[in-house]
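We store chain and fold; example below:
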Amino acid sequence: MRFDEAYSGNIFIGSQQNFEEAEVVLYGMPMDWTVSYRPGSRFGPTRIREVSIGLEEYSAYLDRELHEVSVYDAGDIPLPFGNAPKSLDVIEAYVDEILGHGKMPLGIGGEHLVSWPVMKAVAKKYPDLAIIHMDAHTDLRVDYEGEPLSHSTPIRKIAEHIGPKNVYSFGIRSGMKEEFKWAKENGMHISKFEVLEPLKEILPTLAGRPVYVTIDIDVLDPAHAPGTGTVDCGGITSRELLASIHAISRSDVQVVGADLVEVAPIYDASEQTANTASKLIREMILGYTMTTKK
């Protein structure tokens, strides 16, 4: 991997091109090879960066500015089109290297399967890892129509890898009955429908632990984020999602990595979804680096 070459495309607002000095490495995972409904999330990382120019670098929520955090935008990982197994291997190796340099990885998807190799890489460095997962869907399937590499499987994969009791899902409103049963029988935490209040109850139990946060944009109601591959009505508001990010930022957990996935710009002519995602990423950068300084 080469992190010493400047990315020639659009970069996320407030990023600088000095890898060595960076606390956070922002990178894109433009993959949607396994989606079962609407493709297009491979275009999410680029568009999120492009619309970020409309953001202020200051967060009124956290009273911090992006210049207070050293962020290196590494661009998109070059992935072999249509080849899911190789793409996942490339992503894992890429994140291994980021972690090896002592940086926090912050990924932009892409479909949710891209989170699996990232979480696996982070778990190698942090054996006591806990996962905070915000999503409309359980993502606990073993396979989708016989295919184990599917965007409906990443949380099942990481739960089996680090233990179901270390995985905490919030905002879930869709999934097979068997998925909910498996979670209950194996001690995995699932909060249906809501995020903020159950998250606040769980965070004190994770104090001091390394935490990886994965957010599927479809945890939001389609009224707030129509540009995604698998829309599902009944979701939370963007205000609640922002408040949830801030609750993690102000807690005693140590965020060691994060991602935001499943933005598919083609389904949102208003660009509301990409703009929302861009603001969420700004708050993740500013907030999650606060947890590493405690």
